[in-house]
């Protein structure tokens, strides 16, 4: 990988991981459209570690409160809002860990192509617009129940199977459709990304160790740092402006991206 490819791919991963526009689509497209070589397992690990560090550090207080309350719930303290939220995050994560593991080989062979990305970019962009425009959006993050958590978790599987869907996009979409307000839908999506990204990173590390891939440590360190900075800034920006601008700008971006992809594929 050239230094330009490292910089662009790391920034793309960091900027798109938590926006509802699909990071996997943007990382797959350079090889599909521009003819770039695959970035390799080591670089995938690096950018995932960078985004994981960003979300954990940004939500460090919430993560600490949830973990502390969850462990204490096994003792005399009992159930609290934070401990309950911890259980809902676990429930939301299980479908991705189980189903994602079972279908990972299918996804890598059949789903990573530009036609699927173009289609899901448009379809799930329109669904995001509908949820943003029509959903009630009255519930807070502490009003999630186990069924809502499970449905949001199952929606996350769709993003794993069909690149271009956007993990954050579809989980926010389902959260909005279930009545969560924008801030709560976004925060739950970000919090539930922590175990998923950690699991993906662990899987990539296993592949890296088992294949013995040669590591370019300069690219790894630069990719980790840039994806961390981009992801942290992206989370901060998104939570600050989401109430004012809603999801519409991201819907427009998805539709334009989808149109551009279809034009390229049909050219």
TrEMBL record:
<keyword id="KW-0378">Hydrolase</keyword>
<dbReference type="GO" id="GO:0050380">
    <property type="term" value="F:undecaprenyl-diphosphatase activity"/>
</dbReference>
<feature type="transmembrane region" description="Helical">
    <location>
        <begin position="144"/>
        <end position="165"/>
    </location>
</feature>
<comment type="function">
    <text>Catalyzes the dephosphorylation of undecaprenyl diphosphate (UPP). Confers resistance to bacitracin.</text>
</comment>
<dbReference type="InterPro" id="IPR003824">
    <property type="entry name" value="UppP"/>
</dbReference>
<dbReference type="Pfam" id="PF02673">
    <property type="entry name" value="BacA"/>
</dbReference>
<keyword id="KW-0812">Transmembrane</keyword>
<feature type="transmembrane region" description="Helical">
    <location>
        <begin position="85"/>
        <end position="103"/>
    </location>
</feature>
<feature type="transmembrane region" description="Helical">
    <location>
        <begin position="185"/>
        <end position="206"/>
    </location>
</feature>
<keyword id="KW-1003">Cell membrane</keyword>
<keyword id="KW-0133">Cell shape</keyword>
<feature type="transmembrane region" description="Helical">
    <location>
        <begin position="115"/>
        <end position="132"/>
    </location>
</feature>
<feature type="transmembrane region" description="Helical">
    <location>
        <begin position="245"/>
        <end position="266"/>
    </location>
</feature>
<keyword id="KW-0573">Peptidoglycan synthesis</keyword>
<protein>
    <recommendedName>
        <fullName>Undecaprenyl-diphosphatase</fullName>
        <ecNumber>3.6.1.27</ecNumber>
    </recommendedName>
</protein>
<dbReference type="GO" id="GO:0005886">
    <property type="term" value="C:plasma membrane"/>
</dbReference>
<feature type="transmembrane region" description="Helical">
    <location>
        <begin position="218"/>
        <end position="239"/>
    </location>
</feature>
<dbReference type="GO" id="GO:0046677">
    <property type="term" value="P:response to antibiotic"/>
</dbReference>
<dbReference type="GO" id="GO:0008360">
    <property type="term" value="P:regulation of cell shape"/>
</dbReference>
<keyword id="KW-0046">Antibiotic resistance</keyword>
<keyword id="KW-0472">Membrane</keyword>
<dbReference type="GO" id="GO:0071555">
    <property type="term" value="P:cell wall organization"/>
</dbReference>
<dbReference type="GO" id="GO:0009252">
    <property type="term" value="P:peptidoglycan biosynthetic process"/>
</dbReference>
<feature type="transmembrane region" description="Helical">
    <location>
        <begin position="40"/>
        <end position="59"/>
    </location>
</feature>
<comment type="similarity">
    <text>Belongs to the UppP family.</text>
</comment>
<keyword id="KW-0961">Cell wall biogenesis/degradation</keyword>
<keyword id="KW-1133">Transmembrane helix</keyword>
């Amino acid at each position: 990988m050239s230094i330009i490819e490292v910089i662009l791919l790391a920034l793309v991963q960091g900027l798109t991981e938590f926006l509802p526009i699909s990071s996997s689509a943007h990382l797959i497209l350079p090889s599909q459209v521009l003819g770039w070589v695959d970035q390799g397992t080591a670089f995938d690990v690096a950018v995932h570690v960078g985004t994981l560090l960003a979300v954990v550090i940004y939500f460090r207080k919430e993560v600490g409160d949830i973990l502390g309350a969850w462990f204490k719930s096994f003792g005399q303290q009992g159930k609290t809002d934070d401990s309950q939220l911890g259980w809902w995050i676990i429930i939301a994560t299980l479908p991705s860990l189980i189903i994602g593991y079972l279908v990972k080989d299918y996804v890598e062979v059949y789903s990573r192509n530009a036609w699927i990305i173009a289609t899901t970019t448009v379809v799930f962009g329109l669904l995001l617009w509908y949820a943003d425009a029509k959903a009630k959006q009255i519930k807070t993050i502490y009003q999630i129940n186990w069924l809502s958590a499970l449905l949001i978790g199952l929606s996350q599987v769709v993003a794993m199977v069909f690149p271009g869907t956007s993990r954050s996009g579809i989980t926010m979409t389902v959260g909005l459709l279930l009545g969560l307000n924008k801030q709560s839908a976004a925060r739950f999506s970000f919090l539930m990304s922590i175990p998923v990204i950690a699991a993906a990173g662990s899987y990539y590390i296993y592949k890296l160790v088992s294949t013995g891939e040669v590591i370019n440590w300069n690219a790894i360190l630069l990719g980790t740092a840039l994806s961390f900075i981009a992801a942290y800034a992206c989370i901060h920006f998104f939570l600050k402006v989401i109430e004012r601008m809603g999801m519409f700008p991201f819907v427009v971006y998805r539709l334009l991206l989808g149109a551009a992809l279809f034009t390229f594929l049909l050219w």
